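**Sequence, structure tokens**
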Amino acid sequence: MRNFNFILIGIFFILAIFTSQPAKADDGPVLYKVVISEEVMGDPHALSAWREYAKFKKEWRKELFFKTFPNEKEYRFTYREELDCRKRLAEYWIDMKKRNPELSNEYLDKLTSVYNSLYFPEYIYKYFHAGSWEVRKNRFRLDEFKEWAKDNLGWHFPKTYSHLDIIKF
């Protein structure tokens, strides 16, 4: 039994080394655990879409952030990340619905309608804006989006049914 425990510890250690990425240049390894909300657990198609979103978030945090912002020493949540991840989510859902037209999910269907409009960047900025974003507000057509949203979004509430938990060593 003792040897089995050592083998398990060894496997975990090897996995941690090969699947980790520093959040800072001088920090130790970081693992990201994908967490999916129980609200979508009963819908395997929505669950799959939100898993794809989280998977791409993980890729952003481990690789794409530092490639996109090579002078940054520490990860931070960016507009570009959320735009790319929501775009991936919408495209994934669109592809699933092409193969299975009867699929329906209130939020994902609404997201794809926004994605297919001219206002996807404004939608991301308006509903998901975070203080760490270094993006000029005047680059968006927020007044036009507000008018469009009245007719097309109604009482829309943005959703996020997956996220990443950080596991540091």
